[in-house]
Amino acid sequence: MTMDFASRVERVEPSATLAISNKAAELEAEGKDVVDLSVGEPDFDTPENIKQAAKDALDAGHTGYTPSNGIPELKEALVEKLHDDGLTQYGTENLIVTPGGKQALYEIFQTLIDDGDEVALLDPAWVSYEAMAKLAGGSLTRVDTAAHDFQLAGALDDLADAVSDDTELLVVNSPGNPHGAVYSDAALEGVRDLAVEHDITVISDEIYKEITYDGVEATSLGTLDGMEDRTITLNGFSKAYSMTGWRLGYFAAPEALVSQAGKVHSHSVSCAVNFVQHAGIEALTNTDEAVEEMRQAFAERREFLIGLFEEHGVHVPEPQGAFYMMPEVAPDGDDTEWCDAAISDAQVATVPGSAFGTPGYARISYANSKERLQEAVDRLAEHDLI
Ligand SMILES: Cc1ncc(COP(=O)(O)O)c(C=O)c1O
């Protein structure tokens, strides 16, 4: 039998990060020692008190469906967090709690993007934005920030040239995956001016907001004058609390959008997992110390790894947040070839910059021990890859 697949699925490529993980798994199955710097998750266990809260919730019988948009106690705790971040426009009626930030993004794209609608991305951009835009039928316009060491401030003129009254949606991700840049307030004000001028809705993906360095803080776009009702603020528990496998995220948006997206949400996932939502309350209210410990470990590794690359004369735009950096590994060559050689010859897994729209670079995740980071750089040097 020949199956006829929907064109919306056929226009999307499989995830590049997944292809690398598969290759790493293959080599490991052959008994090879792979240093995996391709992963997008913290290497810490979930803090103990969060796990305990989930166990307590199970024991208390929180095992059924919940209200579709989330349990009231979690939504109240989220509103408090958002208000602390200066996002005072949001109340519980502005929230949808989702199984992961990814599902939140999927619902937003499905709700806002029709066939042919234009979605603007800032490259390098996380791989799933493109896929979600295409699944919804959107067309992409992309602005590269690599020439400005991934700082949006330098690319505002290019953004101004790229967007128009036809642009429906812009995605801003600060601190960003894959680059780790935190956009300055001046850059965000530039985004605001363009969004207001062209009546563009903006997703502010703040999933790495808690992970910043050197005293830098990531401003929430929705706190800017004029952005209160055109920003969709997206966040999740995966990165800050090391809860990737729990699948818990959320977005906050004007009520009209929540009401439309709520249809996609309730008809697809019904709700986020009940006892996980209870654990989310513990994560929000009682983990400052654990979050700070993880942040400090990332900060140390960041310094360490930048130092190692610099010793080998590799240009690395300094990240101010998240746990990724993008060294320029193939300034005149092919980053996909470089990443293939890194994994096949040196057994170091990284992700090619071209997967994020930025050739010449590779994404390195430093959610790994200093010993393994040192090992990775030593092996790359041994194989003349740096
Ligand atoms: C930029 C960005 N946004 C959203 C997500 C979604 O994360 P999750 O679905 O685990 O909440 C990720 C995960 O890698 C990410 O890197």
TrEMBL record:
The keyword Transferase applies. Keywords: Aminotransferase, Pyridoxal phosphate, Transferase. SUPFAM superfamilies: PLP-dependent transferases. The keyword Oxidoreductase does not apply. Residues 32-380 form the Aminotransferase class I/classII large domain. GO terms for biological process: amino acid metabolic process. It is an enzyme of class 2 (transferase). CDD domains: AAT_like. Its cofactor is pyridoxal 5'-phosphate. Its EC number is 2.6.1.-. Coiled coil: none annotated. PROSITE patterns: AA_TRANSFER_CLASS_1. It holds the Pfam family Aminotran_1_2. One of its GO terms (molecular function) is transaminase activity. Belongs to the class-I pyridoxal-phosphate-dependent aminotransferase family. Homodimer. This is Aminotransferase. It comes from Haloarcula pellucida.
